[in-house]
Amino acid sequence: MLDTVVSAETPEGIAVELRPAGFGARYFAYLLDQFIRIGIVYTFALATIIMGGFGFGLLLILAFALEWLYPVAFELSRWGATPGKRALGLKVVMDNGLPITPAASFIRNLLRAADFLPAAYGAAVVSMLLRRDFKRLGDIAANTLVVHRPTTPAPVAIEDVEPLAPVRPLQPQDQAAVVALAARASRLTRERLDELAALAAWVSGDMGRSGPEVTRRVLGVAQWLLGRR
Amino acid sequence: MHVEALAIRLRPRSNGEAADLGVRLCQAAAPSVFGCYLAVALPLFVVCLACFELAQWLPTVAIWLAKPWLDRTILFVLARAAFGQKTTPWDVFRARRQVWWSQLLRTWTQRRLSPWRSLTGPVYQLEGLRGSRLRKRVRQVRAGKASAGLLVTGAFNLAEAAIVAAILSLFVWLTPEGMQPTIPILLDPSNHGIVQFVVALAYAVAVAFVEPFYVAAGFGVYLNRRVELEAWDIEQELRRAMP
After folding, report:
1. On the CB side of B199, how many CA atoms lie within 13 Å of its CA?
2. Are residue A57 and residue A127 in the same domain, yes or no?
3. Best CA proximity match to B10, nearest among B108, B69, B83, B112
4. CA count, 13 A, side-chain hemisphere, B217
5. Is B66 exposed, middle or buried (0-12, 13-18, 19+ CB in 10 A)?
6. Which of A13, A22, B114, B143 could potentially form a cystine with B20 if both were Cys, beta carbons 3.0 to 4.6 Å apart?
7. pTM, 2 dp
8. What ipTM is given for this predicted complex?
9. A174 in contact with chain B, both atoms CB, cutoff 8 A
10. Contact check, Cβ <8 Å, A4/B151
């Protein structure tokens, strides 16, 4: 089955699913960061313009620091991401899912120069489109990965139906499928819900039948599986 | 439509992740996608570039105009790849009436101007609806996802621009010392000759490389919308669980 997920194993032998972020989200994160940096330099320039040559020197130092240290500082903060990445729900981690180390952060950001070649981040664009983990050159060198931050799904209200015991014991993944159907029921059209419930009708002993009555019984099984007896 | 035959793991995804899934699908099916797409696109690009003699701006505009029509070939291959099928240029040729010649007028006019064509393209091409039902369906799929379609278009247009800039700067770097064109020369439309041709050529290369990924990203968002509207992921699970 095709998926973007990369799995990493912790030293304790636990498999962690990482969801690498691809070109689109990363490009917009980069643009946001760029706007923020330009904004800072512009504001500072307005403040230092009265200081003449000394102020211009300060401005150059600031521009240098923003170019090279801004991403490093933010990636090593507790968010693990620059403001642009945070706004897009992204985060930088090591290949194995651990927080990014200072050395890795420096490497991946210094190598932005290589990604920039031959112009306008051409190498980064090609690399991100061709690699299955969407890494740019700096990520390859530093063994880092830009991932979508895991989000907690919003709580769903499941319609109250009379609970009903399944006619036979269900495998854990089958139970999960029936419960997932109930959780999604309120967002489906009635016809589509009946159609899907007909596929699951065997859990309530209605195999081969369909209709609102069968749907209610399947949702009842979901209630029973969730612990209402 | 056999959801259980899909070779893609479905689940509700964010828009960004859905686009990534599309790119991943394009990578996995790259031999089929690029084989069929380039078989159609390269002859067309050669014709477009040959128009350079008529007017210098013509090749770029012609390639830009042809994009939605080229997208149809890519989408045909991607839709089959989603079910794990390989596609050869011969398969595309046999389906030419459906892929190349249907909805021809709208493809070259209205859809060229659509800012989210990679998202709505699958509805037009794959769902086989007509008339008012088609329009209603397009509105339904686009509802709440128009911004996602817009962002996909924006991102991949920028990718194209980046690759054009990269190729042009390579060209500048590799020209002999003292002959390099400067930026004003590159941008000056009255300047004729090899520089303008290289600009058109760079654009053709960028479109040849980026377009399949763009169509695939939009297709990913489209699939995600179907997951939202019709719970395809749950159907996949239930069909697998059936005794």
Report:
1. 19
2. yes
3. B83
4. 29
5. buried
6. A22
7. 0.91
8. 0.89
9. yes
10. no
